[in-house]
Amino acid sequence: MTDRFPLAQLPTPIERLSRLEKALGVGPLWIKRDDQTGLALGGNKTRKLEFLIADALAQHADVILTAGAPQSNHCRQTAAAAVRAGILCELILGGAPPPDPNGNLLLDGMLGAKLHWTDRERRLETMAGIAAERTKAGMRPYVIPYGGSNGVGAQGYVLAMKEAVVQMKEMGIAPATMIVASSSGGTQAGLALGARLYGYQGRVIGISIDKGERGPERYEEELAVLANATAEVMKVPMRLTADDFHVDYRFLGAGYGVVGDVERTALRLMAQQEGILLDPVYTGRAFGAVLQGEKEGPGGVLFWHTGGAAALFAYAKDVME
Fold first, then answer.
1. Does the pLDDT at position 217 exceed 70?
2. Could you count the other beta carbons within 10 Å of the beta carbon of residue 29?
């Protein structure tokens, strides 16, 4: 396991969604509050960034580069982590700058990140070019992939599963299913590896936010590669295969970041029944899947809230339709 740069307020709590259970006539439902990790409004990327920032510092990096969508939760938390570490941060965002920065984009600017805009399809190419320019100028750039999802970053969610297993034992609960939004893959890959390492016997189901089934290059195979890269970094002999992963592709809707009835229903129910704010892209879609899918069974369901509520402000019209 690599070193860790402390950023998160841990452990995050597990809470019971009692009012939602009553409203839906199901249960038990639990929520793991990784929206409360603390760094710049919190979220799941903070756990990954503890390891990524430590690795960057070990390599004497003086500028962090990463990429994402204009409302990327990962970019916002990366910018904040760079501030805590005393490193410059540059963000490569897909699209064109809006006339009025809002949500995560507003926070990126407040955190002092330098923003670069490019076509969505050219973000990685643009980031590589900027890294080369910084190296040529005598700087030491450290590139973080989408979502902080590589073998270094995913360690954060291996340990998050260990944390949850301890909490569940202390609380005397045993949810048969854990559900989490899955996109860049580091969170689900880390949880799956952690489940094997620390004895969680239930299923970890990733709700695909932006990846449909693609035949021979399935998302499950990508998750296995990522989990095994994480195992190598942690120096554990365990290896996973695509068959060890459960991904639900039924809730892709009209595409990434497009709010539909599934997300609106989930956002309003969680807010009006529990006073908890989901985000319109990831947790809104993933909890919408919980509402329409597997809500009950032996031991119930634990939903991982991965944060992102800052994006609500940029999606106000879509959310309130």
1. no
2. 24
